[in-house]
Amino acid sequence: MKHYKYLLMRRFTQIAILVLYIGANAWGWKILRGDLSASLLMGKVPLADPYAVLQIAVTGATLGIDIIAGALIVTLFYGIIGGRAFCSWVCPINMITDTAAWLRRKMKFSEIQKRFYMSRSLRYWILGLSLVLSAVMGVAAFELISPVSMAHRGAVFGMGMGGGALAVIFLFDLLVHENGWCGYICPLGASYALIGKFSLIRVHHDANKCTDCRDCITVCPEKEVLHMINRSSESVLMGECTNCGRCVDVCKEDALGFSIRSQLKQPKDEE
Amino acid sequence: MKNSPSNDRRRFLLSIARGIGLSAMGALVWSAYVGEVKAAPLILRPPGALKEEEFIKNCIKCGLCVEACPYDTLKLAKPGDNLPMGTPYFTPRTTPCYMCSDVPCVPVCPSGALNEPSVSSYVNAHAKLDINKARMGLAVIDKESCIATWGIQCDACYRACPLMGQAITIEYSKNERTGKHAFLVPIVHTDVCTGCGMCEHACVTQKAAIYVLPRALAMGEAGNHYIKGWDPKDEQRLESVKKEVPHESTKTKLSEKSALDSLNDESGL
């Protein structure tokens, strides 16, 4: 059980948040109303997705006070505390892509499949492109096609044909590219990677305990962030880390664990 | 030779060109899709909604208005509805807007896409929500299929209208065909109708003969060069026009001479 601690906590959080949103629409609960693009917490605190608000802003819209305040609150939360935790702890797509990645590992797809090249920076290009398109078309461009919003809105307000988009992501991740959606395409994740670059909660690696079994790298959806494994004791500092804690879970030697980012300068490579 | 500086440069330029090409291709496909899905002129928005183009810029698709609506009137457009995805709309024939006096859907809007001042009236500089100010659409009557215009007695839309006698009035006239009956023909008043759709909901014909259209579609525009001679206020506009455009400023061959001389000139005959 110890080896699934953070996974279970994550699933609980994801599902609980989803249920709270669904309850607001279906049974009139007042805890968390709206959806992931903008919501109202306890009927008072506005929350808004900074990336969605940014897209709306570049269309030349007159932004309401509530979404500006909401976007600031969310930005501060992930910027100071959570890092890219939205992706692994809140986003409903995460359950789909995790399932695809798990199946891929079980069926050893990555070992038999010839890897085709995609750049991890693709998502930042899509992020930029979405802002340009929003400005030119006068409508939040990514929000119109976002499978993340579609999935969440669909769960709360009715799915329609949105299930198709989710199936596409599942099949893409399963058959085409490991963690293809979250790791390479999703600009929402990219925006949280930028926001959470300097956040405080970090995975810390202790090289002295590491036996180089590489289990952590196998499960990590953003393998690049674990470049220090078995090399040096340092924290995972890249914004791309989603703080999912899977590496902490699977590490049998306790070489990985969550810690608060130290304010002091980190000792880099010991060599 | 493989790693010569000039080959490096070629590779660098090629990768830039490829990046730009792929981005342009992506942008083209994406913008075509976005252009397609945002174009939906036949959509009715919640009360207080900004003009469609502005609305679609501002709406963050959170569904708070939908949750606030006590009658399940508002829906969020789902994939497959062929409407701008995630934006709120309503279908009066199914569920009209019941014109809540406290307009719960508007104040919850976090983005300002639903504009509170546009559905407020001011009493002693105090803003108070007033649903009668809403202009969600405009009821339009198809006289050919409205059975009241046939002479069959029906005032369903008139009775259903929350602004009965103001937004829809009944015009009485004699039915000459039978000689002893009356026509009770409904008339929609553009300046009062809120577009709530209660009339469309109540209409007894198989497909509603009175239906709500977005105002921008339902209304014409005469242009401001017509001046109503029977309206003294409207006639005042003539004075300012004279000053701006002095008379006989254009010279044509006919206007060279005075009108009388021009008429008496027989040289061309």
Structural commentary:
The complex is a heterodimer of chains A (271) and B (269). Chain A has 271 residues and is mainly alpha-helical. Chain A contains 14 helices and five strands. Chain A has helices at residues 5-27, 50-58, 65-82, 85-90, 93-106, 109-112, 122-137, 141-145, 147-157, 163-176, 180-185, 187-195, 215-219, 246-250; strands at residues 32-35, 38-41, 45-48, 201-205, 256-260. A three-stranded antiparallel beta sheet of chain A has the order 1-2-3. In chain A, strand 2 (38-41) and strand 3 (45-48) form a beta hairpin. Chain A starts with a helix and ends in an 11-residue tail after the last strand. The mean pLDDT of chain A is 87. By secondary structure, chain B is of the alpha+beta class. Chain B is 31% helix and 13% strand. In chain B, strand 6 and strand 7 form a beta hairpin. The longest helix of chain B has 34 residues, at 5-38. At the A-B interface, strand 1, strand 2, helix 2, helix 3 and helix 7 of A face helix 1, helix 2, helix 3 and strand 1 of B.
